[in-house]
Amino acid sequence: MKYILFILFAAFCQPIHAQWTLLPVEGPQCCSQIWFSDPTHGYYSGGDSTLLDSWDGGMIMETFDGGISWDTLFDPEGDENYPFNVVFVGDVGYTSNRYSNFYRTENGGKDWELIELGGTNFLYNGLQMPDDSTVLIAGYSGEIFKITDNGENITRVLFLQPHYQSFIGMQCIGSTCYAYTNDFIFRSSNAGDTWDLIYTSVEDAIKLLFIYPNHQIMMATKNADFGFRLFRTKDSCATWDTLGVMDADVFAINDMAFQDSIGYFVGYDYLLKKTTDSGRTWVSIPLDTIYDIPGDLHELQLLSADIAFIAGYEGLFYSMGVPTSFPTTDGKLDLLLYPNPADSYVNILLPESSDISVFNAIGQLVYQINSQQHVYIDTHSWANGFYIAKSDFGAKGFIVQ
What we know:
By secondary structure, the chain is an all-beta fold. The chain is 2% helix and 50% strand.
């Protein structure tokens, strides 16, 4: 395949903490969504064509090493029955496609059950799980469905008319969920049971929303006269701060995400821009490119200000802040530990399962776990200072600050 040599180079020759590392995916060529639960475990879904009229199947891919390698998790039958969105809470997961087909798994994706919604087509642009027993789905039909009790109960909780009012996105913060069209923003405070209209756009067309954990909202809009503009509200859309005009074509922006004051947006032609002041100013970030691939970047996810992922059409995939190879010591595989220094957490990744022990600077055992290949350690309550992580594959020091 055309990516093999590049993948080998990216996986084994790049610096462990390269800013943005290109790791093309051999799988769906039209990325619909990426979704990572932690820096190493994630999903990549989409169809096998970049042309809307020529779908020939699709699948969900899964990675356990931050995107170095991917396995096929779900490949449903039917050329147009491709997975569009995917979401998991633990082992319970859902995926939707463009023809009202909806699937559920209870065992992490090993087996999938078809759930027929009975709605109109194109119910695929928003998929959220407020909790492990509730799923909400919205899309181009202007409908939102709520599904509970393992798919036994399916309720259409909102239906916009006329039909051209299509939902283009949805995001939940706990049981509070937001869904939006080009003209409206709706909010539910009860996990989708009821919805209130909280904002109507007068001049601009809403293109993207991002909801912070504290419910601050970032809104990107397109306007024929002003171009691509960014707004922020801290009071549930009662008032908006204008953060400025973004230096990009209004049709070029596909996704945006923020962590505190740091944010990114992605778009066509390998477009990546970054802000460090909550969106007031933006700088372009160069990315590695592949010859003869136009670079349509479609999906963006930030797990922290330093760990992020981008996916696009034709198998494009980038990671930031995630190790892309195992180091060696005298020819032997070693452990990976990141981030270092650690603020609130640390990841330890091993080439094979091993017992892991962590000691503080005076030799006291502060953490221990048996036979793990990847462990996520919450260091919120740890005292600042130096620590050592030990395993069968060596030891590594790190700092908690």
